[in-house]
Structure formats: C-alpha cells, structure tokens
C-alpha cells in the first residue's frame, strides 16, 4: 500500500499513521496548490460506536522545502480538540446530525492551524474550526454532502481548508501483492502459477481522515512569486507530511483515557513519495525511517540504488525480465525520481530537481500547469503534471512504480539499456473503484456511510 500500516510500530498507532501525501495544482484554480495528507488507514465505515477521528495528542504537519536543503522552510501544523457533550450516553450521536453544530452530535471535533516560517510560528485560524462528523449512515447523517460542505472553510490569505473523513483515493491489490509478490494479470507467469485475472482493489470501501489545504502558489515559493520557467531555480518545492507525539506516555487517572503525554514532541510517522517506506526500506529499519527527517535520508540511498523488488521480479517471474536480471549498475533513474528529483536534460522539457541532498519528498514543479486531460501514469505516460511531479489523487502510482522498478525508466539515464517487454505492461490490474473523486476542493470523494456499507462495496449515500 502507499503507506497504510507500512511499519511495525506505527501499525499499532493508526491515529498517527499517515497513508498518503498529495501535492498538485488544481485545474479549477491554477494559481493555487492543494496539499493533502491522509491519516488513519483502512477505516470501516460501520466501525461504531467509537468511530474514527483525529487524535488530540498528535501533531499533524505538512512541510514545504523551497531552499534546496530538504529541510522544512514552511510547516503547517494541525492540532485537534474533541468534546463530549453528553457523558451519560454511549452514542456518537443521539439523533440526526443535520449540521456540523448539531447538538445531536455527541462528540464534535475542532482544530486550529499554525504556520511556521523563518523560525516564527503564528496561528492561521483565530478560532477553532469544526470538523464534520464521520458518515454514520442514512438516519444519522442523512445529507453528508452538506455536512462536508459546511466543514470546508475559507481562511485568511486566500486559503481553503478541510479536515475530516473522506473516501480513500488510493488503489492496490494487497491480497495478491503480499502473497509472494503476485500480480493477478500475470498469474500464469509467476513462479507459482495460477489463472490470470483482473486485480482486486483491496482499499475499496475504506475511508481515511484527510487534511486538505489549498494555498496560493506564491505562498510556497522562496521568492514569493509564481514561477513560469520550468527550469527556474525557484520553481520546484519538496513536500512531505508527518505526525508527532510527545515523548513520554504516563498513567494519569485524571484523564478520560487514563493516560497523558508529556515531554518533547517526536516524529512517529512521515510520508513523501508513495510506496517508499512500504517497498524500499527493509522491515528492520522502517520505524527508524519514520522518525528521521528527509535531509538525513542518505542512509537509504543504497536501497534505492539496488532495490530488493528489482531482484525479486526476475526470480518470481522466471524468464520474463532477463534484461533487468542482468542489470547490475546502481539505479540512477530511481535515485533521481525518488531522492533528488529529475534534473534538466533527462526528460525533454521537464525537471523537478531540488538539489544534491538525497531525500524522500514529493517534488512539485510549480511552473508546470495542470493537464487538461490527466494521464494516470503521470510523467511515465507523457503527462508532466503527474507523479513523480507532485502527486494527484488520480495518479496510478502502483503501476508507475512497478514499471519504473521493472526497468522502464533506466534508459532515461543509461541509453545502453533495453527494457524487457514486460516492463511497459506490468501492473497490479486495479483501478480506483472507491468513491468518485470531486472536481472541486477537497477533491477526494465522500466517505462511505456505515449503514450503506456491505463487505467489499460502499456508497456515500
């Protein structure tokens, strides 16, 4: 998965577990950038009576690097506060929730946003903003689209924000991929062959909790201007998201949970490029990676230069990837895509290089306009507005990553290499069968409702 339960320790702490990070210029507002960080993976919509929510004891942050250092130059921090209106009931709601300030909602949640830049921190929200409830079902949340609209807030500086439950936009065949690296469309070629079939989207029917922030492009650039030159020094930014907890958890019976957190804040989850910690970093180092900052990622370059998956593909699919099997050079193509950005001269008319510091970040070139017709294969499919240039909600990152690891992108840096025929065809065979994406902010689909949910399917209403 992109980063759902990607490391042993964070898998035990879903409230702090980042699942996906996105950064893109929206077609309906091309002077803005949309930053999305999803948390709390694999939410069953019918998971009451204690439904999913952001944690009050976690700092959720989106970081921007615009100085070529891979260090955060701008950080947006989201802090949450939850109330219980009626402490005599076990119910999440005591009647229909017809507005986000409805007294029937027994456990409302609120948040504030703080921005840190140039060492100074200030609040972007003078008051606590309300989240929407989760989509409980047709009786409890009869018009969820209206609740979600009420929870979309305009804040000063031409910014827009949403924090609450949405449908997951990621798709992947988990059941097959982690069953000895099988891809259902290529089952017959696997070391343990089975009948070919379409991929199955394992994420279908699950929700996530989304933080979506739309800000002017000029707020994120080093010089405060909107870039127009793809190759300009200020055109590309790095983006990643993190979650942090205080260092010490102590028994405290005065708290409703019986515990309190104290001490300095420590990062416990992070996510830039999709699938990096999932399939690049070895299991024994995954938790350590989650705690590190991107500018210290040089340690992980060796796993990018010689990825385990590139060796597994020829072993799992005998005879299908002979050229990949014979290729022993460091994977300079993957290192550029994942660790430094793509420099000028590698892809005609495009670059998103952020400097020589190896670091896992999404890299978004702000001078590349949004595509009129998006190709879900992004840059590999000839669409420079898609991943690995930022990441859009509709980008098929699993297929892109599989084809890159399989050798399709090696000729970008090594003209002597000929990709295997399968490299341009490999896929897990899934499509986004989750709720439909929206054309307007916050762009992710409405979350599935509890009452409406059946195993393997979901509806927003």
Automatic annotation (TrEMBL):
Originating species: Nocardioides acrostichi
Source domain of life: Bacteria
Ranges of biased composition (kind: Basic and acidic residues): 1-15
Location of region: Disordered: 1-21
Protein name according to UniProt: DUF4331 domain-containing protein
């Amino acid at each position: 998965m992109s980063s759902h339960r990607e490391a042993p320790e964070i898998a035990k702490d879903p409230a702090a577990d980042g699942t996906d990070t996105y950064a893109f210029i929206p077609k309906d507002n091309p002077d803005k950038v949309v930053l999305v960080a999803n948390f709390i993976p694999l939410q069953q919509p019918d998971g009451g009576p204690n439904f999913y929510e952001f944690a009050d004891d976690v700092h959720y942050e989106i970081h921007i690097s615009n100085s070529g250092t891979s260090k955060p130059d701008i950080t947006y921090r989201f802090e949450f506060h939850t109330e219980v209106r009626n402490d005599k009931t076990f119910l999440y709601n005591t009647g229909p929730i017809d507005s986000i300030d409805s007294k029937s909602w027994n456990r409302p949640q609120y948040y504030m946003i703080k921005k840190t830049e140039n060492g100074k921190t200030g609040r972007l929200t003078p008051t606590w903003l309300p989240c929407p409830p989760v989509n409980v079902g047709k009786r409890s949340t009869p018009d969820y689209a209206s609740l979600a609209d009420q929870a979309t807030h305009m804040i000063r500086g031409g910014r827009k924000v949403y924090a609450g439950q949405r449908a997951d936009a990621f798709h992947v065949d988990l059941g097959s991929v982690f069953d000895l690296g099988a891809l259902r469309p290529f089952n017959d070629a696997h070391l343990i062959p089975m009948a070919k079939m379409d991929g199955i989207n394992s994420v279908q029917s699950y929700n996530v909790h989304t933080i979506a922030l739309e800000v002017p492009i000029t707020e994120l650039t080093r010089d405060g201007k909107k870039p127009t030159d793809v190759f300009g020094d200020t055109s590309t930014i790095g983006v990643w998201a993190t979650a942090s907890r205080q260092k010490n958890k102590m028994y405290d019976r005065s708290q409703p949970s019986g515990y309190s957190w104290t001490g300095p804040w420590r990062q416990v989850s992070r996510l830039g490029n999709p699938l990096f910690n999932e399939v690049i970093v070895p299991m024994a180092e995954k938790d350590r990676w989650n705690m590190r900052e991107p500018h210290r990622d040089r340690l992980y370059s060796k796993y990018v230069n010689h990825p385990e998956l590139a060796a597994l593909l020829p072993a799992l699919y005998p005879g299908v990837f002979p050229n990949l099997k014979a290729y022993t050079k460091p994977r300079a193509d993957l290192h550029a895509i994942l660790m430094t950005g793509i420099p000028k001269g590698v892809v005609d008319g495009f670059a998103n290089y952020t400097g020589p510091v190896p670091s896992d970040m999404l890299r978004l070139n702000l001078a590349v306009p949004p595509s009129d017709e998006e190709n879900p294969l992004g840059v590999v499919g000839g669409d420079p507005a898609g991943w690995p240039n930022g990441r859009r909600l509709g980008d098929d990152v699993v297929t892109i990553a599989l084809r890159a690891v399989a050798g399709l992108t090696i000729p970008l840096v090594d003209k002597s290499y000929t990709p295997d025929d399968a490299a341009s065809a490999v896929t897990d065979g899934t499509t986004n069968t989750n709720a439909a994406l929206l054309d307007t902010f916050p762009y992710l689909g409405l979350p599935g409702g509890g009452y409406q949910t059946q195993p393997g399917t979901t509806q927003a209403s």
